[in-house]
Amino acid sequence: MKLVVNGEEHVVEVPVETSLAEVLRDELGLTGTKVACNEGHCGACTVQVDGMPVLSCITLAHTVSGRVTTIEGLRDHPLVAAFVRADAVQCGFCTPGQVVSAAALVAASPEPTVDEIRHAMAGNICRCGTYPKIEEAILHWRD
Amino acid sequence: MELLRPSSLDELDGGVFVAGGTEVVPLLRDGILQTTSLVDLRAIVPRGVRDGRIGAGTTLAELESAQVPDALREACRLAASPQLRRMGTVGGNLLQSTRCWYWRLRYPCRLHGGDRCHAAEGEHREHAIFANDFCVSAHPSDVAAALLALDARLHTSRRNLPLAALYRLPDEADRRTTTLEPGEAILEIEVPPAEASVYLKAMDRRRWSFPQVGVAAARTGARTRIAFAGVAPIPWLLDGETVDAATPLPRTAWKVDVARALLRRALAELG
Ligand SMILES: Cc1cc2nc3c(=O)[nH]c(=O)nc-3n(C[C@H](O)[C@H](O)[C@H](O)COP(=O)(O)OP(=O)(O)OC[C@H]3O[C@@H](n4cnc5c(N)ncnc54)[C@H](O)[C@@H]3O)c2cc1C
Ligand code: SF4
Ligand code: FES
Ligand code: FES
């Protein structure tokens, strides 16, 4: 199968039951995408397909036809610096997924309100509780 | 396992259907669903909303901002998480399985064909208050409750039926909770216009949680239809009865109070 990730086309051979997260991490070495619950509850594995955040742990790689963007593809996004400035990271495990969701939010709505942020980011759980700082990072992502 | 991608309804022939995969993929991984062929329905199931007809392949995220009755839009907005709403389809949502933890952990309970309901004897704080004499699970679909109150009809690859007829209570002879036959695909959902409709949901946190109790109410003329999520093994239509008819378990009595309070607020909002 073919998969376009961060603008680059890859050809991989994997069984049908393989998740997109497994292909990204184990076949392509893109380990920035994290897997925690592996069943759709936490959002750690969030990547974008055609700009929309989806959960790579419960997406079968073979069903993906769009362009995939992972945290590695957002390395230079201003949100990364904004997360650092706001200290929006504690253990850091949820952070790649948070940035991927936030990048889609600010692309659609460059000046999101607190309410928009809470609605759009609700699927990304942070077990360390950095939510106020994530909110701050997104509110000031272009500063 | 093979992945089939049929391009017309005539090609449908067995296998496990998958649309957004949010339910199917975890169930396959946990061994609750087993198959040698997975059938991707996305090329044959309609997607989008037109003249009160919703393609079963429409995502919850699309419905969240579509021209559909308020109760349906709100039920979609409050369901699951943003990522899941973008992946999950409305057809798949109506067919989701119970969240009963015993069932998900593959206890050999009644719904799995066994002879005990582990939840009735054990942990059941999140479980049912209606129709709970065989299996005490609580149906988790917000969307189904909204569509039930709106008196939606389904068009499948074989028949047309009211949404209420999609569901059946499991019993000794037949453990299924839907009447969908193997190989039958839901194609469209027809939603008649309502004069007013609302959906209210109680959760254990403000966002991103299954319903503890959800109530949908829809008014057309002198008639108001009321349906609940999270109170019975299937989406529950309050049909000529009141919440007083509930038969709570020792640890689900709190849900009766929540259901009553939500219903009172919903009716007040309907005006
Ligand atoms: C963590 C989590 C939280 C959730 N929270 C909520 C919530 O709060 N409220 C709520 O209402 N829902 C909730 N859901 C359910 C979610 O909305 C559904 O899983 C989703 O809508 C299912 O759609 P899908 O396209 O992904 O279905 P799939 O996983 O592809 O399929 C689900 C089932 O439907 C069958 N199927 C799919 N489409 C068709 C069709 N057109 N015809 C016939 N059969 C079909 C499949 O064979 C399968 O049995 C949650 C799910 C998860 C994983
Ligand atoms: S409530 Fe239903 S699904 Fe849960 S243990 Fe009892 S029989 Fe099984
Ligand atoms: S790892 Fe995918 S949602 Fe938790
Ligand atoms: S920083 Fe630890 S989970 Fe979010």
Structural class based on helices, strands and sheet pairing of chain B: alpha+beta
Strand content of chain B: 15-25%
Q: At CATH's second level, what is the architecture of chain B?
A: 2-Layer Sandwich
Task: Name the hetero compounds present.
Answer: flavin-adenine dinucleotide, iron/sulfur cluster, FE2/S2 (inorganic) cluster
Poorly predicted residue ranges of chain B: none
Mean of pLDDT of chain A: 97
**Physical arrangement of strands within the biggest beta sheet of chain A:** 2-1-5-3-4
- What would you give as the CATH superfamily of the largest domain in chain A? Beta-grasp domain
Specify the number of helices of chain A. 5
Query: What is the end-to-end distance of chain B?
Result: 53 Å
Strand content of chain A: 5-15%
Overview of the structural elements:
The complex is a heterodimer of chains A (about 140) and B (about 270). With about 140 residues, chain A is α+β, with helices and mostly antiparallel strands. Chain A has two domains: about 70 residues, Ubiquitin-like (UB roll); about 70 residues, DNA polymerase, domain 1. Chain A has five helices and five strands, in the order ββαβββαααα. The longest helix of chain A has 14 residues. The mean pLDDT of chain A is about 95. Chain B is globular, with a radius of gyration of 18 Å. With about 270 residues, chain B is α+β, with helices and mostly antiparallel strands. Chain B has nine helices and twelve strands. The complex binds flavin-adenine dinucleotide, iron/sulfur cluster (SF4) and FE2/S2 (inorganic) cluster (2 copies). The site of iron/sulfur cluster has 15 residues of chain B, from helix 6 and helix 7.
Core attributes:
heterodimer, A: 143 residues, alpha+beta, Ubiquitin-like (UB roll), DNA polymerase, domain 1, five-stranded mixed β-sheet, globular, B: alpha+beta, binds flavin-adenine dinucleotide, binds FE2/S2 (inorganic) cluster
